[in-house]
Amino acid sequence: MDIPFNELHIKSVYRTGEDNLFFDFYRPVLEQSVRYDRAVGFFSSEILAINLKGLSQLVKNNGKMRLIIGEPLKKEEYDAIKNESEEELATRIDSYIDRLLAMIAEEEKTNRLKVLAYLVSSQLLEIKFAIRRKGMFHEKIGIVYDNYNNCIAFQGSANETPSALFEDLNAESISVYKSWQPEIFQEYGQNYVNAFESLWNGNQPNTKVLNVLSTQYDRISAYVKENLTNGGSRFNFEKILMELEDELEYSFDEPHQKYPTVPTSINNVSFEIREHQKLALQSWKANQFTGILQHATGSGKTITSIYALTKIFDAKHNKNGSLVAIISVPYIELAKQWVIELEKFNIKPIECFESKTKWHTKLTRNLELLRNKKIDFMCLLVVNKTLVSKPFQELIAKIPTNDLMFIGDECHRHASENTNKSLPNAYFKLGLSATPFNDDEDEFETENLFPNIAKELILSYYQTIVHQYSLENAIHDDVLTPYDYHIIPVFLTESEQLTYDELSQKINDVIINSGGKLSREEQEKLMIYSSERSRLLGRAENKLVELRRLTKDIPQENRPYSLFYTGEGKTENEDSTVINEVSKVLSQNGWRTSQFIGSTPPSVRKEILDNFKLGIVDALVAMKVLDEGIDVPACRTAYILASSKNPRQYVQRRGRVLRKFSGKEKAIIYDFVVLPNAEIHSDFAKKLKSSELERIRDFALLARNKSEIESILDKMEMNDGK
To answer: Which of 224, 427, 512, 685 is the most exposed place for a label (fewest CB within 10 A)?
Structure first.
């Protein structure tokens, strides 16, 4: 129904606590709008998304929108672009369009950006980029127009985030100026209308406004047709609008409920739980639904736990009960992989990571629905950082213990006191880890000096390991891929050996002087010396020599799907990083590589992984970011240039390359083994060699070429008794 603004009973001020900003103001106004002017202060997917609520209504009205996207610059940056040529400015806009399309592709769950793209392709949206010194003008002002020449200008503190729109957690407010109240509008509202027009027309001081060219609009339209609408059909986009409305509306009346369901197939392969998974869950049940599954990396721990969740829900549902499942993971990247796996079981979790504004409102509403028996199932997927946060803890504290299931992925991460005390009081508790009790401070040689507090904390929550499934079991059962193992000896230089011995002596001195009870200061010294020694081994000079020799001779057809694990930190002369030097050697030998590190943005990570799976790049070069959870099953060869003494790390790295993948009959592991300098004989040198040989034995035990490695080991052990 077409209703003029002046018949909507629009208030002059809206405040959270008194009003629902979305339902009371934004939605009714946008439902009747035919034109919408908006200035967005910063170029980011989150800022764009939270400022574009209600666009679905504008589409239905065939409405027009003008959007100004800001890019605040430092004075010298702004001065540099003021005199750019038209061609240079066009290139700059091209880069913005690239970023915008990347955001739309990345934000799969944020349909507002898809709506924005569709508006552009339908010529309902015009965009300009405002390059401004220091900040964006009027980023919290909006102007809407109806079919009856009415105008509303609104301004205030509300950021259109979920917490502002749906809750009274923040003291948010907006002031509204209506054209049918001419005296007030002329004094206040018209100023904001004029300010937007001034900015749009490029008349705002200290601002350079860039117009998007028709060819650049065509690029966005082409993207929409190829990726969002099946060649231009409007049907798919109508579905997107419906999903967007579901996202915005949290009603207590007849909410949509999705229930966990065991799939008949996964990835077009008939699904049936494996025998070791079945036995594991039987043992977990026998221990009153509490315990840890110590299963090899890649053997299906995630699927096992989701299957358990589904069966627990079935049992509760059949007795008219409720279930809230909380799944905790260490990293966002791993959380996103869980989203994909949960979807196979018809589970759409509330994603409690990244910005609080993306989950807090939905979780609050769903808990209310649960208490009012409007829903009886909910799944929360949370990263450990959010798990320990006060807002999350306050909400889950309201969930009854008997209705709560907690799944702790990589549960060895729950050994820190802060995380451990934040674990929920759940009746159903399931921990997952290939190596539950190895201390992350893996370089210390002080096992007998410290009580195993980590183990005690983990068992205080999960009680015990209820089932074990080893790497040997997994390879024997064809759950993981068999592998060949090759040793690449790397000898320390004389200088490196002397430094290694010096650091080892310092570590020994701290331990001896402590008398068996380390003070905080002594613990800090141990961490410093141990980290320095670990970095020294990771950047050993001869590793690059051996890497250059080895990778030069590997045929092109054997290069794709490779992983290179490097040391951390800088090279000895501090002029480069170890990972950059490894990448340089590979490039010189004709390898196509991408670095995959902790600071790599999510959108770039996805692109890198896609290129890796497609064989566009031969190899990923990483430090520790691939150690836990990130799936790269296509990987066939691992080059381990750095490895800590902690079995967890090399167990996880080995498991990463052994995951099953179509056409992958075996995996290959190259282990760069650091050995002492042949000219320096010391107890520390002997101990270094002994620890490296211990890892070789572990790897060789299950290798297809075991006898070959054992022969090499025998020779190494006989050589000078070192």
So the answer is: 512
